[in-house]
TIGR03564 family F420-dependent LLM class oxidoreductase
Amino acid sequence: MDNRVPIGVSVWPRPGVANDVANMIELVALARSTGLRSVWFGQRMDLDSLVLAGVVAQAVGEIGVGTSVVPINPRHPVVVASQAQTVQATSGGRFRLGLGLGSPALESAAFGIHEDRPVARLREYLTALRSLIEEGGADLAGERVHARPPLPTTVHGGANVPLLVAALGPQALRVSGELADGVIPNLAGPRTLSSHIVPRFERARPAWPIRAAQIVAGVTAVVTDRPEEVRARAAESMAFYESVPSYRAVLNREGVEYAADLALIGDEEYVTRGLRRYIDAGATELLITQTDLGGPDDQLRTWRLLAELSA
C-alpha cells in the first residue's frame, strides 16, 4: 500500500480467560511480535484504560500505548494529568492520551451526572490539562472546570503527553484543533474525514503548533474467509452507534444505513483497498478496532496484514 501510515489496534481480553490483565499483556506481546506499532485501550466500567496502559507498557517494550478513549466528565483534569504523566514515565515516552466527551446515557446511569455544555467543558478541560502537564500546575476557575491545585503537578519523566480527542461535531473539532494535538474519531468514514473532520481540525490549528497534527482514524476491520458470518457479528456489536446522534450524522454523510456498513470485512485485498481510502482521505494514522470479531485465528491474520501495511 502506497503512502503508508502507522497502524495500531485496539485490544481487549478474550472471553473466559482466568486473568484479564495477564491476557492483555499476552495479546500486546503478540501484537508487537507481528510488527504492529501501537495498541489502544478503551474505557469501560471494568478494566481501567489508563492503569492498563501503564501496566502493559511496563511489561511489553517497544510498542506505543494509548487510550481510546477516557471520558472527561467523570474524571477531574488534575487526576487525569497525574495518571497520564505516570503512564508516560512508566512507558518511557510511548504513551498518548485519548479523551472523549462520553456517553450522556451511560454517565447519567452510572454516575448520576449530565453535562449540558459538553463543548464548553472540553475547552476548559483541555486548557487545564495542558497547563497541568506542561507547566506543572493550573489556575483555572471556569464555568465547567475548576483546577487550582495547591501542590505541583509535575511528574519527572512524564511530560510530553500528546492529547487526542474523539471529536466528530464541528464545535468539538474546532476546540480540538485549537487545544489538542490531534483527533481520534471512530466510525468516521473516508467521506467524513476528507470533507468534515480534517479540514475543520486543520483550520483551527495554531500557526505554530507544539506537535504535528495527528488524525487517527478508527476503523473496524477483519481479514477472514467467513465475511458474512463476521459481518453479522459486526452488525450486532456496532448497532448501538446507529442511535447516537453524532454517529448517525456520520452514517448519513457516508450514505449508509448501518454502522457495520463501514466495517472492512473480507480478504487481504479487500481490507487493503478499504484502508487506502482512509489514508487518501487524510488520516495520518489508523486505529483498527474489533479485529477479534472472527476469533483468534482471524485476528492474528488481520494483525499480520496490518503490520505489513504499516509504516
Notes: The mean pLDDT is 96. The first strand starts at residue 7 and ends at 10. Residues 16 and 23 are 10 Å apart (CA to CA).
